[in-house]
From TrEMBL:
This is Transcriptional regulator, LacI family. Residues 311-346 are annotated as: Disordered. Keywords: DNA-binding, Repressor, Transcription, Transcription regulation. Gene3D superfamilies: 3.40.50.2300, lambda repressor-like DNA-binding domains. Signal peptide: none annotated.
């Protein structure tokens, strides 16, 4: 039979309430009693019953994370950052994805209710289900990550995708490139839209006589590879290629390697995100660094500002001075071998 909190209390010769306060980290327990209770709990291999704790404390000690996908280094890094903060606070994660499908997103979000103390949601799609997020936000703390037109009543954290794409386009132009192709992300993705907008505006501002050169992409290696093949088949090749994320840049790089095209001697190449693999391919990838793990950690800490360490979720206690939308995380230009200068400039 499993060991109960009553068994620990009996063996430690204290009350059940004292055991509960000790195991939950409350300070109103004498040090010698605390040590004795912890030693007994360890000897008996006592594990608190999660469901019982939730009923008594009205807390699940769990944070919910709902993402567009779980595949790829971006999402694994994001979850890693969230998990590091959760561990600091002895919390668990419940993670789900919806693969870009609005119906699955609604189901994933509703499934979190009652199972988590707070919720992190990344919803970069234009068709984001704002109503269900607002419905959940009335019941538990919610933080949105990179969500278009986030409700003013919901905490939000974003990346300056527009500014980052402008900075990369400016860099490629400063390196002497004039024919700059852009591999776009999904049409209904807010991040992709902002990165395309940054590319277009920087190109129009600095090279008003140049034509934009946009190829479709899906934020994965396969679409980057297909875009690379399309560029190689064009009558005139670009000087440089700017992919809206690193995964597409790596797929494009593979198509160039297959065709014997040298990067950056024949065509320069750049990405966006700075996933861990970007620095280990050959040539190493020039990119815009988004500290993805830091983004996850920052979002988790923002969520934890809405949670009370001892009494659970802060119900209906919104701090009116608390900013609804945090300052955007600004990407950093990382120049590596694939995008070195070719003919003067900065």
């Amino acid at each position: 039979m499993s060991v109960t909190i009553k068994d620990v209390a009996r063996a430690a010769q204290v009350s059940v309430a004292t055991v509960s306060r000790t195991l939950n980290g409350h300070g109103n327990v004498a040090e010698d009693v605390r040590r004795r209770v912890l030693a007994v709990a360890n000897d008996l291999r006592y594990t608190p019953h999660a469901a019982a704790r939730s009923l008594s404390s009205r807390r699940t000690h769990t944070l919910g994370v709902v993402l567009p996908d779980l595949h790829g280094e971006f999402f694994s890094e994001l979850v890693r950052g969230v998990d590091l903060v959760a561990r600091e606070h002895r919390l668990h994660l419940l993670v789900s994805s919806y693969h870009g499908r609005p119906d699955e997103q609604v189901a994933a979000l509703r499934a979190m209710r009652g199972r988590v103390d707070g919720l992190l949601v990344m919803s970069p799609y234009a068709a984001a289900q704002v109503s269900i997020v607002e419905e959940l936000a009335s019941a538990l703390p919610v933080v949105l990550i990179n969500t278009q037109d986030a409700s003013p009543d919901v905490l939000s954290l974003s990346v300056d995708n527009y500014g980052g794409a402008q900075a990369m386009t400016e860099h490629l132009i400063a390196c002497g490139h004039r024919r700059i192709a852009f591999i776009a992300g999904p049409e209904d993705n807010f991040d992709a839209h902002e990165r395309l907008r940054g590319y277009r505006e920087a190109l129009a501002r600095l090279l008003p006589d140049a034509s934009e050169w946009v190829l479709p992409g899906a934020f994965d290696e396969a679409s980057g590879h297909a875009a690379g093949q399309a560029l190689l088949a064009a009558g005139q090749r670009p000087d440089a290629v700017f992919a809206a994320n690193d995964m597409m840049a790596l797929g494009c790089l593979f198509s160039f390697v297959q065709a014997g095209v040298k990067v950056p001697d024949d065509i320069a190449l750049a990405g966006f995100d700075d996933i861990p693999l970007a620095r280990y391919v050959h040539p190493t990838l020039t990119t815009m660094r988004v500290n993805i793990a830091q983004l996850g950690a920052r979002a988790a800490r923002l969520l934890l500002t809405r949670l009370s360490a001892d009494t659970g979720v802060q119900e209906s206690q919104h701090n009116q001075e608390e900013p609804r939308r945090s300052e955007p995380l600004r990407p950093e230009l990382i120049v590596r071998e694939s995008g070195v200068r070719r003919g003067g400039g900065a």
